[in-house]
Amino acid sequence: MEGTVWSILPPLVAIVLCFVTKNVLLSLFLGIFTGGLLLNGFNPITGIGYSLEKIIESIADEWDAKLLLFNLFMGAGIAFIWRLGGSKALADWARTKIKTKRSASVWAWLLGVIVFFNDYINAAIVGNVTRDIFEQHKISKEKLSYILDSTSAPVATFFISDWIAYQLAMIQNGMDGAGITNISPLTAFLGSIPFNFYCIFTVIFVGIIAITNWDFGSMLKAEVRAQREGKTSRDGASPMLNVDFELGKPIEKRPMILTFVLPILALIVVTIIGFYYTGAKVGGETLIEKLGNADAATALLWGAFAMTLTGITIALGFRLMTVAETMKTILEGFKLMLLACAILVLAWSIGTVTKDMNLAGYVVSVVGKSVSFALVPAIIFIVGMLISFATGTSWGTMAILTPIAIPIAYKITNDAWLSVTVMAGTVFAGAIFGDHCSPISDTTVLASIFSGSDHIDHVNTQIPYALACAFVALIMYLLYGIFKISPFILLTIGIVSLIFVAKLLNKLSLKKYA
Fold it and tell me: Measuring CA to CA, which residue among 308, 386, 393, 388 is closest to residue 349?
């Protein structure tokens, strides 16, 4: 079954059932169980045993365990911000500064670009800062989750972050496979940025939508509901984070903006220090080398713990809570994240199943190497999209495709610079697509969490936007492969095309939903 067409089945079952049943936990488990059946001769007993083992492995993995604790402490930090009146104080401030729906959306977009050093932290910070502002202006949870998701991984892939260090390592692997020795990984990475069409288009498309309000498809339907009925979530939705319901009313004693700013500031500062410290401890002369050696999960955990500790300090220091109330708030914050943690564990588990099934090997084998370079960028982009969407992991997709794509291009063109820069940018673009919008991606889950959106509602409303950007990116890759047009010219053409596409789809959707 491994490495054959059957390897598609586990993620396919999970993804299809997510949309059909609207129950993410059940769908993910059935996807895992499908893999267990295929790998164990369709024996249901050993299939269940295999499924449970994969779930246990995900929980026991050190990296995953740290991220689960990160989520729990983030929940506690959010609980303190809410209970101490920080969110109320922010909403009061926002009423004087952010007075329109457009300014709220643009603010979230810009903040998402500014917080670039980690995709998880991006979603957490931007979600916490803007969630109540969006609620005040009656902007749908689906819209906020789209902005969070589209300015987390796509932004982290460009600037100084733990992502960059990983991407440099993948480029080095690709060059080693091709026998390219005269280009440094950092130089190659910088050269690949203009070819990362999907990520560039995605980030810019968020700005286009935020500024123009040209929503379309199911997102427009959600926005019409929010504006006309005042419902930021649809009736029957299951929000991944429901602060109002879980935590009740905030303390009215002394709502201070400080109770919002200090925990978030602690999160940011301690996380950045954690990135530097854990990387420097391992070694490295340059900042990039230190980031490459950083333990991102540990840094994130430290930051979230600092956020919770700051909340405790404020609660007790200003005598806003008793010790018993403080402990209760921590536990209530943990409860906020239980569903999210369960989904993350199952998402990681099905990723392991697809690896055991050798799904990536099958997809890559279908492509083959006997093609003209004119089609190679487009093919690699599509393969990256398929693998990342099916597995929910961009890093895994990069690890699979980069060592294959660079040698293929070099074998066809014998041009080292073109092979490294074009292929690296293309692989990263395809890999981010799935991480950005697959229902089994951890970053997609986190965007749902910190926006307070129903997870499947988030996926359903975001996919049309992601596909619009992916379609334009695909055309640009074809144009480059055939005509070798400068990527900067193609980026300009692509952005203009996206404006046209957004306006056209908005007009068509208005007839249906408005």
Answer: 393
Cβ–Cβ under 8 Å, residues 468 and 498: yes
Q: Count Cα neighbours of 5 within 13 Å in the Cβ-side half-sphere.
A: 0
323-345 tens-digit pLDDT = 999 999 999 888 877 877 887 78
Which of 284-298, 440-454, 456-470, 483-497 is the least confident region?
284-298
Burial class (CB in 10 A: 0-12, 13-18, 19+), 430: buried
* pLDDT digits 0-9 by tens, 427-442: 999 999 988 888 888 8
Q: In a 3-state reduction of DSSP, which class is residue 209? A: helix
DSSP-derived 3-state class of residue 249: coil
Q: What is the CA radius of gyration of the chain?
A: 23
pLDDT tops 70 at residue 256: yes
Structure tokens of 150? 């589209």
Enter the pTM of the model.
0.76
Q: Which residue has the tokens 């083959």?
A: 368
Tokens matching residue 78: 């959010």
- Supply φ then ψ for residue 22, to 5 degrees: 65, 10
CA 357 to chain CA centroid, nearest Å: 24
Query: How many CB atoms within 10 Å of residue 62?
Result: 10
Residues 401 and 387: beta-carbon distance below 8 Å? yes
Give the bridge partners for 454, in sequence order: 239
- What are the C-alpha distances in Å from 483 to residues 150, 418, 479? 30, 14, 6
Mean pLDDT, residues 8-31: 82
Cα angle 77, 63, 29 (rounded to 5 degrees) comes to: 90
Record the tokens describing residue 170, joined without a space.
């993948």
The vertex-510 CA angle with 505 and 513, nearest 5°, equals 120
| 239: helix, strand or coil | strand
Record the tokens describing residue 159, joined without a space. 């600037």
Distance CA 442, CA 450 (A): 12
37: its two tokens: 């059946």
Model confidence band, residue 156 (pLDDT cutoffs 50, 70, 90)? confident
Residue 366 has pLDDT above 70, yes or no: no
DSSP 1: -
Q: Distance between CA atoms of 133 and 124, rounded to whole angstroms?
A: 15
Only one residue has tokens 């060592």, namely 403
Mean pLDDT of the chain: 85
> What's the CA gap between 246 and 509, in Å, rounded?
36
DSSP string for residues in 447-469: HHHHHT-BHHHHHHHHHHHHHHH
Which tokens sit at 448? 């749902």
Place of tokens 């965007």: 447
